[in-house]
């Protein structure tokens, strides 16, 4: 007799992990993977930051017992996250209108937020940018929402179709949940200007939309405070506001799964009710978060010396990515002078929508260079050793 499992179909493959599988199977020693979503250093390795190493040495020395954390996570961590995300002098912190729960990476933060919203705004629809991080849609759909796109990327300019985006925001029904990338848009690398953010914030407030800011790359754009500025401006409108943030990239702590969800309420009293419900979502999913990553990040953020070291190391990652953008544009200008790649310099964060077509990406693969079918390349996977090979191959397939 057939079992409950026998009719289950194969789930679709994750498009990015599929590239990794093909890359791993490639026996060419000169293969290059630009399809990844992680920061590599100039040696092509995921770095272990010195600030993390030092914080972990302190934690080993402490030899603390592994008790459960509170449902909302480590208090010192949640406080440090709030100060990083909203600014230490933020009114929402002083007035106790912001609540923060430690989460299992940025993904976990989005999922807590999605489950929480599904409970209290079940009829609302969710809007994500076209295109967006590929997990956004699946995540909100799995929480029970209908997910729509809003206009975002303009392939003809390699930037944002801002008029289209604003028109879509204005047409959304009141109460709709709008997912926005706070900085370093994944996958396009195209961000809004501050003046454009002003207009977005005004429409969201006027039309009673619910902004959900996803900040997975704070510090990879213009700087820690600069990238967080948009969160502060949203918070200044008084809420409601949800913010997911991740330390996967900014601390190079991918596998430790460190992130947080912060929610801004209109009063301290409302905030305490929200926190009680967020805790319920956490409690029924995984009870409470893991200790190590949260303690590591909190140790760095609360020690002046380690914090300075982190800021310097993060600046190093940010600057190296910018250097690779510059080098890519400069070298492509030499090798393919009839093509204009200047836009790559305007894009920010780890990724670039390079404008390469699916056919061109396929042709690159024949050279053992792997990119996403959409033309997304990870600029942080370029380094001084592989960039000439990549430029030559791109020039060849154009
Ligand atoms: N949001 C965006 C836009 C991302 O690009 C990512 C990771 O790639 C995440 C969220 C998830 O981050 P984490 O790995 O911390 O779950």
UniProtKB/TrEMBL annotation:
PROSITE patterns: AA_TRANSFER_CLASS_1
Enzyme Commission number: 2.6.1.-
GO molecular function term, any single one: pyridoxal phosphate binding
Similarity section: Belongs to the class-I pyridoxal-phosphate-dependent aminotransferase family.
Keywords: Aminotransferase, Pyridoxal phosphate, Transferase
Protein name as catalogued: Aminotransferase
GO biological process assignments: L-phenylalanine biosynthetic process from chorismate via phenylpyruvate
Domain (Aminotransferase class I/classII large): residue spans on this chain: 30-394
GO CC annotation terms, alphabetical: cytosol
Pfam families membership: Aminotran_1_2
Cofactor field: pyridoxal 5'-phosphate
SUPFAM superfamilies on file: PLP-dependent transferases
Gene3D superfamilies membership: Aspartate Aminotransferase, domain 1 (3.90.1150.10), Type I PLP-dependent aspartate aminotransferase-like (Major domain) (3.40.640.10)
Subunit structure: Homodimer.
PANTHER family: AROMATIC-AMINO-ACID AMINOTRANSFERASE, ASPARTATE AMINOTRANSFERASE
InterPro entries: Aminotransferase_I/II_large, Asp_trans, NHTrfase_class1_PyrdxlP-BS, PyrdxlP-dep_Trfase, PyrdxlP-dep_Trfase_major, PyrdxlP-dep_Trfase_small
């Amino acid at each position: 007799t057939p079992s409950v499992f026998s009719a289950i179909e194969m789930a679709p493959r994750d498009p990015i992990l599929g590239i990794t599988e093909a890359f791993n199977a490639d026996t060419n020693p000169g293969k290059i993977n630009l399809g990844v979503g992680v920061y590599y250093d100039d040696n092509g390795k995921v770095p272990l930051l010195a600030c993390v190493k030092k914080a972990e040495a302190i934690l080993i020395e402490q030899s603390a017992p592994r008790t459960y954390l509170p449902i909302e996570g480590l208090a010192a961590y949640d406080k440090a996250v709030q100060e990083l995300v909203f600014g230490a002098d933020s009114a929402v912190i002083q007035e106790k209108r912001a609540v923060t729960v430690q989460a299992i990476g940025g993904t976990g933060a989005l999922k807590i937020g999605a489950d929480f919203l599904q409970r209290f705004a079940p009829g609302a629809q969710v809007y994500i940018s076209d295109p967006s991080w590929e997990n956004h849609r699946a995540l909100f759909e799995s929480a029970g929402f209908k997910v729509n796109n809003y206009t975002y990327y303009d392939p003809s300019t390699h930037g944002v179709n801002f008029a289209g985006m604003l028109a879509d925001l204005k047409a959304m029904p009141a109460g709709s949940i709008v997912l926005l990338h706070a900085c370093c848009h994944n996958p396009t690398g195209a961000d809004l200007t501050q003046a454009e953010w002003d207009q977005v914030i005004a429409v969201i407030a006027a039309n009673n939309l619910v902004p959900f800011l996803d900040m997975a790359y704070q510090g990879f754009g213009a700087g820690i405070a600069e990238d967080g500025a948009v969160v502060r401006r949203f918070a200044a409108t008084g809420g409601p506001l949800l913010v997911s943030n991740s330390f996967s990239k900014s601390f190079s702590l991918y596998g430790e799964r460190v992130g947080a969800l912060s929610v801004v309420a209109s009063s301290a009293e409302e905030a305490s009710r929200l926190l009680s419900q967020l805790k319920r979502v956490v409690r029924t999913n995984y009870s409470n978060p893991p200790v190590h990553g949260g303690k590591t990040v909190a140790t760095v953020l609360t020690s002046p010396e380690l914090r300075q070291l982190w800021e310097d190391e993060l600046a190093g990652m940010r600057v190296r990515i910018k250097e690779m953008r510059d080098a890519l544009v400069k070298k492509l200008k030499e090798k393919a002078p009839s093509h204009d790649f200047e836009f790559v310099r305007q894009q920010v964060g780890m990724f670039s929508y390079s404008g390469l077509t699916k056919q061109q990406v396929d042709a690159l693969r024949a050279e053992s260079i792997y990119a996403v079918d959409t033309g997304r390349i990870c600029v942080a996977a370029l380094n001084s050793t592989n960039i000439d090979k990549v430029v030559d191959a791109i020039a060849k397939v154009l």
